[in-house]
């Protein structure tokens, strides 16, 4: 799979975890669990639920270096009624999960 842009900035994640490989894996695994939950919930929740889900995802996505997800989640938080954004977010999460599985030893959580 060829990615248009890197779904996850591992250099950013390494800086955030001070180069600690175990901490990096733990933080990434926690984010993957949160992202998978958001991916499953986004279509079936109401507008306020979408806004709250997106709000939670923005900060954690930025923290791990999943900047495309963070940007999309910020758009969804601002426009929770946008079906286009609500459909794009799960696709970005799926890309990120695939990318992580291809670039980590364990494949992350999920």
Uncertain segments are none
Taking all Cα atoms into account, the compactness measure Rg is: 13 Å
Q: Report the mean per-residue pLDDT as an integer.
A: 91
Distance between the termini: 19 Å
What fraction, in percent, of the residue positions are helical? over 70%
Estimated share of beta-strand residues: under 5%
Decide which structural class fits the backbone: mainly alpha
What is the succession of H and E elements? HHHHH
Largest sheet: none
Count of helical regions: 5
Tell the overall outline: globular
Number of strands: 0
Features of the shown structure:
110 residues; 72% helix; mainly alpha
Can you describe this structure?
With 110 residues, the protein is mainly alpha-helical. Helices cover 72% and strands 0% of the residues. The protein has helices spanning 10-16, 21-41, 47-64, 67-78, 83-103. Helix 4 runs antiparallel to helix 5 (83-103). It is globular and about 40 Å long.
List the helices and strands and how they pair.
Elements lengths: L9 H7 L4 H21 L5 H18 L2 H12 L4 H21 L7
Helix pairs in contact: 2-3, 2-5, 3-4, 4-5
Give the structure's gist in a few sentences.
Helix content is 72%, strand content 0%.
